[in-house]
Design goal:
This protein is mainly beta and 162 residues long. It is built from 2 helices and 11 strands. Strands 1, 2, 3, 4, 5, 6, 9 and 11 form an 8-stranded antiparallel β-sheet that branches. The protein has a 3-stranded antiparallel β-sheet with strand order 8-7-10, with no helix packed on it. The radius of gyration is 15 Å and the shape is globular.
Length: 162
């Protein structure tokens, strides 16, 4: 696992963040009633919102054009998936279930769009969400997200790739 602060050029990062979280409020997010496993869908606190950018070998959103510089910087040879995740504020930090994105070794990156007290557990290590920070790791290893308590939302962009 590698954590890199101030990963993107500040102007590019601010433009990206503004497109997704800006005052225009026109970036679409979609409700998902479980974070990790379908059997968790009956838990009232196990949900999040997402926006799929790339899946099943094709771009699934116009937002694909926004992440080109990140794809280049990560030197991605082949994409599996890109999605934006939004976790809402909770009274206490909720740690979602550990999971594996895919059950084969590959590369992953989590780019935080805002700073908050939530974060990602990768096996037994916690990485707090910090604006413009990227976490590089193998998402076939157990990991999980959390909610946050000190901001309205916690938002990141997840990349799965080779």
């Amino acid at each position: 696992m590698q954590v890199i602060k101030n990963y993107l050029d500040k102007n590019y990062f601010n433009g990206l963040k503004d497109k997704i979280l800006g005052k225009q409020n026109n970036f679409p997010f979609f409700f998902n009633n479980t974070v990790a496993y379908k059997e968790d869908e009956k838990k009232l606190t196990d949900f999040y919102f997402h926006h799929m950018i790339y899946e099943d070998f094709i771009p699934t959103s116009d937002a694909f054009s926004l992440v080109g510089p990140i794809i280049n910087k990560l030197e991605i040879k082949s994409l599996l998936r890109i999605k934006v995740n939004m976790y809402t504020r909770t009274e206490e930090i909720i740690k979602h279930n550990m999971h594996r994105d895919f059950h084969f070794e590959h590369k992953g990156a989590i780019l935080s769009l805002n700073t908050c007290d939530g974060g990602t557990w990768i096996e037994d290590k916690f990485v707090k969400s910090e604006e413009n920070q990227i976490v590089l790791f193998d998402p076939s290893k157990p990991h999980c997200s959390t909610s946050c308590t000190n901001e309205q939302v916690r938002v990141n962009i997840n990349f799965n790739y080779f």
